[in-house]
Write a structure and sequence with these properties.
5-stranded parallel β-sheet; single chain; about 35% helix; alpha/beta; 16 strands
Length: about 475
């Protein structure tokens, strides 16, 4: 049995840095069987505990060993509404694969790669969706706010339970961060659309261009539109800035705006003279997470000659996945670590032309074990740039909280929920994902959506005098 994972085929870095096609091209059937055979089929199944949605990992891998990708996909779908997506963007290395016993000696099983293979193979067969829920016989109507990972997961789970589910999406295309935030080369939008199509075939209804809090309020959904409960999975779409001089200059983007513009450009194939984002020759991306890596790699693909990640800590502290850091470096992204911007400068037209930075040094570890960076006196320096992207995090949009009386929120904007129930301070309203935690991962948001669906089911059963354990 081989010690290391079966390598994932990828585009050559020199080629992919100039196109938006998917970087990893996926396993063949032979590769998938070879990798599946590395699984020890452990009795205690620690990998399942490491998965936020508790996919039956050994079960689907056992089927892949037999070459039955369709059956493996069906097993995954019992717990995961979006397997083709999770197989690509989940941080398996810190979750299911981190628990893999095979990884004690050698590398863990490539669970994410196998999940992707099973989903891609089954979806290529254009399998029909599940039977639609008969709205007349549905248990109750449930509203889901937001069609990102949390909302889609919650809607899929409620649909399987027999509820009549409607998703309300503020933008014109469903998918949330999956469509507007993650670039095409990491997550092809065709796959997102096919995953969402599967939910719609199963009976989930999606209403786009519906801004909850403006088009209609949560209270109106519950009191006037006949919905018995609601789940808020509206994400964290409010960008954070450093509040330093020059951030208002043209060419200084939030990562949200930059990536949304890039994704729209690719989706609608804008001609060059109508391109909704211009990176120029020298781009600085401030931040060290996956979003920063995405923005930097997009800038290269837009034709930038020099792209640098500017991060105030060291590489070991970067929250981005190791794979994303390696891919960025392979493609030519430079890393200015222990460096922090303190000012942006511009020309007479108000366009950014430069950035002043300061060197940072890490102090002694605090109580949490993290070493806080501090500026090094006299270390300021300037560098020429044509574009800057600020990727230092996001907060939930305050609109829903402002238009829902009694909805309790944190000082920073996150919706307050009661322990593990995900119930908010408003009866019948539940929340999860980035709207509660702040920006996190796709799979954690999906786990919250799945958990909320079960809590909503218990709430509605209790409300109707049914046995919640039935």
């Amino acid at each position: 049995m081989q010690m290391n994972k079966t390598p994932m085929p990828e585009q050559d870095p020199r080629v992919r840095a100039h196109n938006f096609e998917e970087v990893a091209t996926g396993y063949t059937a032979e590769m998938a069987i070879q990798e599946a055979q590395r699984c020890l089929d452990c009795r205690h199944k620690p990998c399942v505990e490491g998965c936020p949605v508790n996919v039956k990992i050994p079960d689907f891998i056992r089927l892949l060993k037999k070459g039955d990708a369709r059956a493996a996909y069906d097993v995954i779908r019992q717990d995961n509404a979006l397997p083709a997506i999770c197989g690509r963007v989940c941080p398996q290395e810190t979750q299911c694969e981190a628990r893999c016993v095979r990884g004690i000696r050698g590398e863990p099983v490539g669970i994410g790669r196998l999940e992707r293979y099973a989903a891609d193979t089954a979806m290529a067969e254009e399998a029909a969706g599940e039977a639609k829920v008969n709205a007349e016989n549905a248990k109750a109507r449930v509203a889901v706010v937001g069609s990102g990972p949390a909302g889609l997961s919650c809607a899929g789970e409620l649909n399987r339970m027999g509820y009549d589910v409607t998703i309300f999406e503020a933008l014109h295309t469903p998918g949330g961060v999956l469509v507007y935030g993650i670039p095409e080369f990491r997550l092809p939008k065709q796959l997102v659309r096919r995953e969402i199509d599967g939910l719609e075939r199963a009976g989930v209804k999606i209403v786009t261009n519906a801004v909850i809090g403006k088009s209609i309020t949560l209270n109106e959904l519950l009191e006037e539109e006949g919905f018995s409960a609601a789940f808020v999975g509206s994400g964290a779409g409010l960008p954070r800035f450093q509040n330093i001089e020059g951030e208002q200059l043209s060419g200084v983007y939030s990562a949200n705006e930059f990536l949304t513009r890039v994704n729209l450009m690719k989706a609608y194939r804008f001609p060059e003279y109508l391109t909704p984002v211009r990176a120029g020759k020298r781009v600085a991306v401030v931040g060290g997470g996956n979003v920063a890596m995405d923005a930097a790699r997009c800038a290269l693909r837009l034709g930038a000659e020099k792209v640098m990640i500017v991060y105030r800590r060291g590489e070991e502290e970067m929250p981005a996945r190791r794979e994303e850091i390696e891919h960025a470096r392979e493609e030519g992204v430079e890393f200015a670590l222990l460096t922090n911007p303190v000012k942006f400068t511009g020309d007479e037209n108000g366009s950014v032309t430069g950035m002043t930075c300061v060197r940072m040094a890490l102090g002694e570890p605090d109580a949490s074990g993290r070493r806080r960076p501090a500026p090094v006196p006299g270390s300021e320096f300037e560098t020429e740039i044509s574009c800057a992207v600020i990727a230092i995090g996001n907060s939930p949009n305050p609109l829903i909280a402002q238009t829902t009386p009694g909805l309790e929120t944190q000082k920073w904007g996150g919706i307050v929920v009661k322990g593990d129930t995900l119930a908010t301070s408003v009866p019948g309203v539940y929340a999860g994902g980035d709207a509660v935690t702040g920006a996190a991962t796709v799979i954690l948001a999906m786990g919250a959506g799945k958990k909320a669906a079960r809590e909503i089911d218990e709430y509605l059963r209790a409300k109707n005098g049914e046995d919640a354990k039935a």
